């Protein structure tokens, strides 16, 4: 099989005897709230709090936030304070259960500040100020409109769409509906322009990526963008909807032609010239921008590779809400807890593939860098497709449902609407697109059947003694070459029922790097063939992808996050269910920046996203 990647990084095999996996062993974690603090909510003496998906490091137990505006309370006090109704949240306290409410609340626009790019002057992407915030109300009897696939729309539609964006770009610069203002919304919510309410330090900003906020934030963002466009062309098409870029379907795998016409309001000069039609998108492209072009791959292989990425990310690799949506991000948490499967890939690679390659004066603009991504009109079609995958994922079966944690449901954002009103929205109102007035055109979903073959090429033979030879990986490890390590499995030979109840999850912990670099590494399981071959290979478990944000606050800003991979199906395909351990290979696909990893382990995800509190 042709390698999908030219010039692989040098190989070094290191290993892990499983000890570090064990030291990180978990499931849900418990911490104890001391009596004196629990008494603040006038409840019985002790609570044991189990947060299933969390950044359970040991300092969660004794961290005092250094710059917490709420004064001398520590984090748990604040969470309980919020839960007790301090901010009018809906948490309830009963003897059976206690919801510690700590949703990320709507940012205070008066606290919005400039964001500093790595080079050059700070960027101000703050919206115009308004002190008058109205709460979102569902449109009464909304007409349910259809968002169409971009490759299926007709000439009249394209003409109207261009006119809508042209009018949006022609609005006064300080009009919140103006195109640049719309693009800046994304920059502000992604580059740390808003402190979390109650905090003023750079560690506690509102961040809509790398967590469970990713899907609902972008849905709301498109909702208002679309309404503004529709309102600007009521004379032409009052039922206007934005089109989705159907990159998961072979017919939609190029940039839709009307985005590529010069002199169109839908064109953007800051794109990769190598990614113009008829070039096929690479859903597993590197985030570096330099090594994502594989000259040897045929169009047929590219299509198959793309369908496999979709299958891995949507079908086999994201069987629980936590795997799909990403990790919890609550008030008081540091940003970037961990992205869901789709946010990583294909969402990230499509950004980078569309934007300019890095180098010279390019930082991947526009699409390949989150501060500038929404300046390209194609952004909104890219995200419409991402948004479309949410209901598709939910339709795929058991456990595939929205998160029922009130911190997610009550999380808030603000947007200006088509009447220039500042509107506060909540995640819970975004869950049903019909209530918001739209659905997606029904098109073929060919990747549903793109299951990899069960005849893996590189699997470790049963009873093989090869694994012990990989012992010795030291964590944290620097990912500067291909790394192979053995990770112990806490359970093996699980019954069908057990597998249905609990997904086996490979967790890569403490992934650290500077956030202005594009990072990608691929992950393979039981692949003795040095981990190349890409998504076509059965052993491919997925990728970690970081689209650069390009900003820093004074000093180099580091991201620390984690990535999870659902591997129950994969292990079945590999015939590795009875094995004591798995061989994990990480293949770095970036050229810039330095990545370190704190540990790799296997956990079991029962029903992530649930916050359960037991009062003993
Ligand atoms: Cu907010 Cu595609 O990123």
UniProtKB/TrEMBL annotation:
The GO terms describing molecular function are:
catechol oxidase activity; metal ion binding
Q: Where is this region: Disordered?
A: 450-473
Keywords on this record? Copper, Disulfide bond, Metal-binding, Oxidoreductase, Thioether bond
Instruction: Give the protein's cofactors.
Output: Cu(2+)
One GO biological process term is: pigment biosynthetic process
**Location of cross-link 2'-(S-cysteinyl)-histidine (Cys-His):** 190-209
Can you quote the record's cofactor note?
Binds 2 copper ions per subunit.
Q: Which residues bind Cu cation A?
A: 186, 209, 218
Sequence positions that bind Cu cation B: 347, 351, 383
Q: Which family does it belong to?
A: Belongs to the tyrosinase family.
Q: What is this protein called?
A: Tyrosinase copper-binding domain-containing protein
Organism for this UniProt entry = Lupinus luteus
């Amino acid at each position: 099989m042709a390698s999908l990647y030219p010039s692989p990084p040098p190989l070094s095999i290191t290993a892990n005897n499983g000890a570090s996996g064990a030291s990180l062993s978990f499931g849900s974690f418990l911490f104890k709230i001391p009596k004196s603090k629990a008494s603040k909510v006038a409840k019985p003496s002790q609570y044991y709090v189990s947060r299933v998906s969390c950044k359970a490091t040991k300092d969660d137990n004794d961290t005092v936030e250094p710059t917490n505006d709420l004064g001398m309370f520590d984090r748990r006090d604040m969470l309980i304070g919020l839960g007790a109704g301090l901010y009018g949240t809906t948490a309830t306290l009963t003897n059976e259960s206690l919801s510690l409410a700590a949703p990320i609340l709507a940012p205070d626009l008066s606290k919005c500040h400039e964001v500093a790019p790595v080079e050059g002057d700070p960027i101000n992407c703050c919206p115009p100020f308004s002190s008058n915030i109205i709460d979102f109300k569902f449109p009464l009897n909304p007409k349910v409109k259809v968002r169409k696939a971009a490759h299926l729309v007709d000439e009249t539609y394209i003409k109207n769409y261009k006119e809508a964006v042209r009018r949006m770009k022609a609005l006064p610069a300080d009009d919140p509906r103006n195109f640049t203002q719309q693009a800046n919304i994304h920059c502000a919510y992604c580059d740390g322009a808003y402190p979390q309410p109650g905090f003023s330090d750079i560690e506690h900003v509102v961040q809509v990526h790398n967590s469970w906020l990713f899907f609902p934030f972008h849905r709301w963002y498109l909702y208002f963008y679309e309404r503004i466009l529709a309102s600007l062309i009521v004379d032409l098409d009052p039922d206007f909807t934005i089109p989705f870029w159907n990159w998961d379907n072979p017919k939609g795998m190029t940039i839709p032609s009307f985005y590529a016409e010069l002199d169109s309001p839908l064109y953007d000069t800051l794109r990769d010239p190598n990614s113009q039609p008829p070039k096929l998108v690479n859903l597993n492209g590197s985030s570096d921008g330099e090594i994502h072009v594989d000259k040897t791959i045929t169009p047929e292989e590219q299509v198959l590779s793309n369908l496999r990425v979709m299958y891995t990310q949507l079908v086999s690799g994201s069987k629980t809400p936590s795997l799909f949506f990403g990790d919890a991000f609550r008030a008081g948490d540091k940003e970037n807890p961990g992205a869901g499967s789709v946010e990583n890939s294909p969402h990230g690679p499509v950004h980078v593939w569309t934007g300019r390659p890095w180098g010279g004066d390019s930082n991947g603009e526009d699409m390949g860098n989150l501060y500038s991504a929404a300046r390209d009109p194609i952004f909104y079609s890219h995200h419409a497709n991402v948004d479309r995958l949410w209901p598709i994922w939910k339709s795929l079966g058991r456990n595939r449902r929205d998160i029922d944690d009130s911190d997610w449901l009550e999380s808030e954002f603000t947007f200006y609407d088509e009447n220039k009103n500042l509107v506060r929205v909540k995640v819970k109102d975004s869950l049903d697109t019909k209530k918001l007035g739209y659905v997606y055109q029904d098109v073929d979903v060919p990747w549903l059947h793109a299951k990899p073959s069960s005849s893996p090429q590189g699997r470790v033979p049963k009873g093989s003694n090869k694994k012990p030879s990989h012992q010795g990986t030291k964590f944290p490890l620097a990912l500067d070459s291909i790394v192979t390590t053995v990770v112990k499995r806490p359970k093996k030979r699980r019954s069908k029922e057990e597998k249905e109840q609990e997904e086996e999850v490979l967790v890569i912990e403490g992934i650290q790097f500077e956030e202005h670099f594009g990072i990608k590494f691929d992950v393979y399981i039981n692949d003795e063939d040095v981990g190349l071959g890409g998504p076509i290979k059965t052993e491919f478990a997925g990728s970690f992808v970081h689209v650069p944000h390009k900003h820093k606050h004074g000093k180099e800003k580091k991201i620390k996050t984690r990535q999870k991979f659902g591997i129950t199906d994969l292990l079945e395909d590999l015939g590795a269910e009875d094995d004591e351990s798995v061989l994990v290979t990480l293949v770095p696909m970036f050229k810039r920046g330095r990545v370190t990893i704190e540990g790799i382990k296997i956990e079991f995800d029962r029903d992530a996203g649930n916050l359960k509190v037991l009062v003993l």
